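Render this sequence as a predicted structure.
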Amino acid sequence: MSRVVEARSLCKEYILGNVAINVLKDVNLEVLESEFVVIRGASGSGKTTLLNLISGIEKPTKGKIIVYEYDLTKYNEDFLATFRCTNLGYVFQSYNLISTLTAKENIEFTVEIAGFSSEKATKKAKKLLKLVGLQDRGNHFPGQLSFGEQQRVAFARALANDPPLMLIDEPTGNLDRKTRQKIIRIIREMKNDAKTIIVATHDEEIAKYADKILLLNEGKITVE
């Protein structure tokens, strides 16, 4: 299998006032095509930061992050925005839905900015809402949806352009048991579709399906 993600001596430092906080320290990893990787670690261990570096949303302080053979540290935001739209879907821990758009419009927007027609966007949005069991909630705004429903809309939006790589940040945190099972089912279906999946999670049940489990501890990564 080909390599999808490679991190080489990856470091990320944040400056707060006069204090330097080293979140990631010399991280090396690789993720292969169609591999399902779980990243574990305590809150604040750098899991979200690592996902943001893989997506190109943030840049490392040192080192390289290579995704589909592109060294993302070398490209500007215009390239990275197009790259993300084409190659990856990101389900954020905070959902990041646009509050002024309905559930259906949040998904349509993602398809349209990729250059597809509004007709195709509407068709895709309806299909994805059905996939996540929210076909009757498409005209509701995020504020009218439960946390679990917002999470499922976030999954649908991330899948809108059928990306080969999925990044998922704490998908089942603070969800009730029934909604948690729905989210896990969606992730398992993505795995069955041979997508490359990287999930940051504390959820033991999700970890059961992983091909590889990585542990982040004090800025360093090890394979469990």
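Summary. The domain at 3-96+164-223 is CATH 3.40.50.300 (Rossmann fold). The chain has a mean pLDDT of 93.
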